[in-house]
Amino acid sequence: MKLANLGLAAINVAQNRMQTAGHNINNVYTDGYNRQQVKVSTEGAQNMGRGYIGMGARVDSIERSYDNFLYRQVVNAKSKQAELASFGTEITQINNLFADRTAGVSPALQKFFDGIQAVASSPADPAARKELVGRASSLVGQLNDANAFLEEQRGNINTQISTVVRQVNSYVERIHDFNNQIVRARASGSGATPNDLLDQRDQAVAELNELVGVKVIEQGDRIGLTFGAGQVLLSGDTVYPLSAQPSDYDPRRTAVAYSLPAGNNSSVQIELDDKYITGGKLGGLLSYRTDSLDAVQNDLGRLAVGLAMSINKAQANGEDLNGDTGADMFSIANPTVLASPRNNPASTGNVTVQFADANKLTGANYQVSFDGTAYKVVRLPEQTVVAPDDPVNAPGQYDGLTFNFPNSADVNAGDSWSVAPTRMAASDLSMAMTDPAKFAAAGPGTGVSDNANALEMAKLQTAKTLGNGAMNFNEAYSQIVNNVGVQTQQIQTAQKAQAALVQQTYAAQQAYSGVNLNEEYVNLQRYQEQFQAASRLINVSSTLFDTLLSLKQ
Length: 553
Description:
With about 550 residues, the protein is an alpha+beta fold. Among the domains are: about 1-65 and about 515-550; about 335-425, no CATH class. It contains ten helices and 21 strands. The strands form seven sheets. Strands 13-20-15-16-17 form a five-stranded antiparallel β-sheet, with no helix packed on it. It has a four-stranded antiparallel β-sheet with strand order 5-6-7-8, with helices on one face. The radius of gyration is 37 Å and the shape is elongated. The mean pLDDT is about 90.
């Protein structure tokens, strides 16, 4: 009977091995699956007086071929790849808009100044004047259209952020559910490892990282999740969902907020600074919006403000065909100031801002706050504090802007306002002049046939009127185009390098954890032979037993 028991033990081992090999073969193309192996040990031996006779083999466990270091390398590499892909998709659209220098703002700007030159050549020619007004209107239209495209993309990013946040919450709930299943499986399986559940949870974490970079914290059979600057998404049996909501600093901007426990089973949503959110599609969207979209839109607006203020100022220095002082050719709205939705409801005062000097505009955004005693203006994103001359009531002029602060009695401590001075300037630009006769080509008191002021206005094409005397209009626009082009090329290069890194790390991980069909095929043959040999052992045991019975007869 001992031979039969040995045969049964061997059959059990072989059967477990063949079933595991079959499971591996079935899941060779299952994402996140780690190859499983049957761990076998000897049953020990029995002392027979003259030596120990082996008792066979037993199955100890079925383990997955898993290396956490290799797994994390793959997850991190794919998370960065998703971030770059998200960034690259968005910036390519802007690059396509600005890359064509035969259409759009650049040629319209050139044609506008060509029109001024034409009027300078024939100041009293109504056809030349009409052509100039038409070209000015075309330039305004091109700037409006370019900003409208950028604003449409901004709205699309807001939508994508909301969508990704919902997907992140869904994945966190799934991982929470896997935690519970694993805990129950451990409890019901006498501590046996639920390999497939662990694989599924790891795959969910990997897919979550392609949405946003998260960190995993081991908590016994459970895992916890954090992201950003350590904000908790999952801890123990509690999920802390994210939300997408209008930013406290700019309601037109969708921000990501995390849940902070507030006691009594309640929580509050706290806005998280974009710079802390990295990795995955969400990290790419936020990085693109901050590093590229904001800068491009602000710089385009600065160009529009500079054009309007310079031409209008030049108009005021001359006379039109009627002998009147030149009126504005362009209209540009003052910057919009947005009060934080968290401001005290009793506050009635509001900060206002006007353009003062286009040459000093930086293209930066600003945050104004009141601490109950004084106002503080912070230049973003570098967080540079601008200290007003009279921080309580008097206006202050900084970076080409005039800030007007409400009386301290009309606001409350903690109130704040956001200012993106040039964000919408390219859309706000419009034509103030419709009558060609209003173009002030002549110098003061020189007659309608004079072209002195038109010649001065033509010089504005090459005058360094932006960036503290560093750029003319063409150079300012070329800088926008070049910056976008450089960023696009950098992202494309980084994407190629990251794709190679993903391939390398995945290959290393699969070499350890992946299923090799050839290896499994060979294993099946070996395990089949073991099964057949074990069966033969039982046959031999039966034959011997029958022989013994026949001897007694």
